[in-house]
């Protein structure tokens, strides 16, 4: 069995030889740019980790699946960044900023197609139709999650359930799908495929709740981006929605007023909102819910029928993501 | 064997029951809108026509492939219309005009995924991997063609060969791919698959050259849109590039000056450009090249190993497209 660093290095080598080299270069340069910006490569690592639970000696066979998932994820980043008008991604200019929106649309499109091309490189032809069906379902759900996220901007009645469903679709199903695809590709038993998929889905929701917490209450150095971004963008995260639920009428009114404060008073807005959330013990409630999802996730992982040492990598990865802070 | 009108009606019924009915509706309404705007449905009809050459009694089996190709084509229209800033499509507001660019990006994305989902509905599991590979190749080439088209806007050295390659990728490969997929799905022989694919590719180039001709020299009533659109948009079509080739230095200079005339003097610009192209007998040259491609296409169709009556539908469709005028 390969450890996390070995898997990362196998993956990086594969990505380097898979650089888009076709013409016209105006189409493929942006794809190579975003793929080269790095990131945790969590999704392809999940594919590889699941695959080697069942076919440890042959983990390289899963590289086309792992790469497909990473290309797909990067396609969503390119298009989401246009929709969110985001200038920076991983500390560098976003594709539509460095080039333009049209380039970002079309390069994103070809990346989505390239993800399917990568899937088709997988040698297990017998499993391919099922792999593509899982990939289709996940890809569609990620779009549905992004649409829900955009709808929330103009919806004053977002519930916590709506929010949890949105992050499940936008983020968690792809983590579940990555593990599911790794397990299917390796020929795992149905029950193990299901438990790994559910592990990924629940841990994905936990990761997103953690991300919400860090965005407001994290240490900017460790978190790697400015604290308070969600507040500035008036994002209806779990933190805000929980505060609406727990606050008295005065607190809710103050929070709603803050959510409408123009962004010229950013620091003041972040400070006051954070204060209100702290007053209501929202960080505690978010941590409790996060841990509930993490525990649900672990209960599924426990039921996967392999030795503990083969699950260790997934525990390590979970630890690694959560330990970014706190 | 079903005739063209019967195939169209089978296809329309299938489209109606395939309406996107999932949530969130903000994501799927635009997809249903563009799919409902009509159009000639040429690509899915080509899939069905090719399929029934080899499995005449079972043409309905090919509907998931036909629908996939039509959904893909409509996805490209949604995204291309954003990139081209086009307000009208089939006489109605484009998706990004009726909704907004973000909606058009994301709905387009989910349509591309839906095209793959439709492919996966095809019952011939044995042929699926090959069908997906053909679809991937064609989809990627269509993006490459669109990028070349965008590059040409700022390129003063576009050659006729560049142009023909661009329309081949942007338009013709999808017609070839539609026939190819129909033939593969029906289990045709390799040679027949190849000849049908080549027929589609060459006839697609001929169609586009015809379209270029009609855009400048057509009858606006029969053509269904305003004459001179390409001239107003300074498009470097075959007509313009051929005029650069055949014109004397003075004519080329006049044409280049016209291509830089601001669009406030639209009618004047169309009239003068059309006059210059006529002076150089460009319509004749375009018709000759169009007919060369049409004849090449027919030579491939002749070599397909079926009875003439089974090819008749493809001759009819060709006739139908060309007879829109002239």
Observed structural traits:
homodimer; 326 residues; mainly alpha; two-stranded antiparallel ribbon; 16 helices; 2 strands; 74% helix; 1% strand
Helix content of chain A: over 70%
What is the tally of helical segments of chain A? 16
Q: Low-confidence runs of chain A (pLDDT<50, min 5 residues)?
A: none
Q: How does the major sheet of chain A shape up?
A: 2 strands, antiparallel
The structure class of chain A reads mainly alpha
Order of H and E elements of chain A: HHHHEEHHHHHHHHHHHH
Notes on the structure:
The structure is a homodimer of 326-residue chains. With 326 residues, chain A is mostly helical. In chain A, 74% of the residues lie in helices and 1% in strands. Chain A contains 16 helices and two strands. The first copy, chain A, has helices at residues 4-17, 25-36, 42-54, 63-83, 95-98, 101-119, 128-153, 160-185, 190-217, 220-223, 229-232, 238-246, 249-259, 266-279, 282-303, 308-322, and strands spanning 88-89, 92-93. In chain A, strands 1-2 form a two-stranded antiparallel ribbon. In chain A, strand 1 (88-89) and strand 2 (92-93) form a beta hairpin. In chain A, helix 7 packs antiparallel against helix 8 and helix 9 packs antiparallel against helix 15 (282-303). The mean pLDDT of chain A is 95. The interface between A and B is large, with 36 and 36 residues.
């Amino acid at each position: 069995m390969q450890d996390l660093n070995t898997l990362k290095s196998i993956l990086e080598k594969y990505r380097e030889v898979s650089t888009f080299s076709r013409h016209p270069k105006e189409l493929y340069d942006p794809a190579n740019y975003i793929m080269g910006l790095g990131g945790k490569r969590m999704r392809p690592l999940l594919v590889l980790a699941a695959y080697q639970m069942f076919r440890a000696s042959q983990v390289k066979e899963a590289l086309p699946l792992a790469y497909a998932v990473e290309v797909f994820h990067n396609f969503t980043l390119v298009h989401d960044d246009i929709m969110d008008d985001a200038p920076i991604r991983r500390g560098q200019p976003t594709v539509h900023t460095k080039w333009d929106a049209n380039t970002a649309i079309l390069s994103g499109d070809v990346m989505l197609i390239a993800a399917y091309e990568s899937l088709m490189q997988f040698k297990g032809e017998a499993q391919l139709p099922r792999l593509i069906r899982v990939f289709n379902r996940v890809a569609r759900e990620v779009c549905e999650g992004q649409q829900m996220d955009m709808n929330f901007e103009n919806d004053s009645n977002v519930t916590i359930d709506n929010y949890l469903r949105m992050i499940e679709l936008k983020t968690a199903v792809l983590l579940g799908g990555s593990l599911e695809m790794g397990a299917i590709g390796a020929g795992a038993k149905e029950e193990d495929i299901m438990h790994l998929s559910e592990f990924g889905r629940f841990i994905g929701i936990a990761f997103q709740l953690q991300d919400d917490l860090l965005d407001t209450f994290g240490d900017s150095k460790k978190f790697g981006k400015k604290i308070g971004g969600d507040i500035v963008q008036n994002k209806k995260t779990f933190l805000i929605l929980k505060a609406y639920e727990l606050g008295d009428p005065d607190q809710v009114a103050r929070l709603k007023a803050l959510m409408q404060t123009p962004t010229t008073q950013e620091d003041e807005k972040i400070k006051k909102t954070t204060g209100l959330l702290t007053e209501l013990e929202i960080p505690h409630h978010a941590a409790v819910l996060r841990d509930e999802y993490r525990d649900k996730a672990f209960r599924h992982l426990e039921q996967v029928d392999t030795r503990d040492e083969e699950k260790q990598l997934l525990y390590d990865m979970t630890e690694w993501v959560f330990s970014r802070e706190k």
